[in-house]
Amino acid sequence: MLRSDPKVRCGSCQREWILSQALPYCPECIRNKKELTSVILSLHKKIREDFGLVGLDAQDRNTTKCNLCVNRCAIGFEQKGYCGVRRNEQGKLIGPDSNWAYLDAYHDPLPTNCVADWVCAGSRDYGYKNLAVFYEACTFNCLFCQNWHFRERKTKTTTDELMRMVDPTTACICFFGGDPTPFALQTIEIARRVLEKRRKIRVCWETNGSVQPEFMRAWAESALKSNGCIKIDLKAFSEELNLALCGSSNKNTKENIRLVAEFMGLRKNPPVLVVSTLLIPGYIDEYEIEGMAKFLASINPEIPWSFLGFYPHFYFKDLPVTSWKQVNKALEIAKEYGMKNIHIGNIHLIK
Fold it and tell me: What residues does [4Fe-4S] cluster bind to (predicted)?
């Protein structure tokens, strides 16, 4: 339930802010007081343990290294990595590969609700369908996750089974979740098979950007060839705030935005890269928007950037929805730094 007065005192500086009781620290303190990092990560650890997930602090000598994402987990003997699906089994790294994944797949009539619908021709493919592939794991632990129920599901699906869902009316495939990162190998295999058929099917990824760049490059190449796009959610600019909100670093996210932006010169329409940012009240402040705007503009001011309205979910269910004041300020800053292709999504949520 939304609080009528969402302001609470920051647990560090004691000033009043719009904050959630789940993360009672203002963005200024999160960014500037390094001692808060361990406190905040302990909050994430407790939340993850509630869902049977472990942290990143395995000390067992018999660890296995997983380098699939930014977390670079050292997984203890008979333990799971941060995503909860890649594990150390008798000293060997075991997990989803090109042949299977945990997912829920379904057909969505086009046009459908998509982060990139404002710049993609798929939004005009009436009579066709999107094959939505929702992966049931994630490399982040976002306190505001709108799809957090995936933590309670594990539906194993083979690549052959998923390919059988690609029918003559399938115009696009979108890998999202959760996040496609823990299942990067399957997404690459699906894209390869679709492209081999030489059918006009867009292949897209919607992701937090945490995958290692070598895999992101493979995704971008497939998106380019299939007329699809990579939709990267830039949740925060500062690493400290990304750690606080999501439990993981945004280093790969930034690097991957730079990487995919390199492909923009190879195709203008639809754009290969689309960036989105959820305007979370109290936390995504002017400092964060200014940092993102400066960062994106320095890469390519033509990058499509969508600001999304927030609705309270998961551990942030006590926050208000995004205000038009916050939206207008974000637009003002984006324009000030020269961003030329900005958009507002989830308008129905903004008040």
Answer: 138, 142, 145
Q: Assign 161 to helix, strand or coil.
A: helix
Percent of the chain whose predicted confidence (pLDDT) is above 70: 95
Distances (CA, A) of 307 to 199, 280, 321: 33, 10, 13
Rounded Cα distance, 164 and 105, in Å: 11
Annotated binding site: 138, 142, 145
- Print the domain residue range for 117: 100-279
Residues annotated as binding site for [4Fe-4S] cluster? 138, 142, 145
Report whether pLDDT(3) > 70. no
pLDDT number for residue 59: 45
3-state SS, residue 314: helix
CATH of residue 265: 3.20.20.70
Q: Which residues, 6+ apart, have CB-to-CB distance to 281 below 8 Å? A: 6, 18, 310, 319, 320, 321, 322, 323, 326
User: What gap in Å lies between CA 207 and CA 227, rounded to an integer?
Assistant: 18
Rounded to an integer, what distance in angstroms lies between the CA atom of residue 70 and that of residue 179? 13
Residue 5 reports pLDDT greater than 80: no
**Distance between CA 19 and CA 346 in Å, rounded?**
21
Question: Which SS3 state, helix, strand or coil, does residue 101 take?
Answer: strand
- DSSP annotation string for 194-239: HHHTT---EEEEEE-S-B-HHHHHHHHHHHHHHT--EEEE---SSH
Q: Domain tally for the chain?
A: 1
pLDDT over 70 (residue 55): no
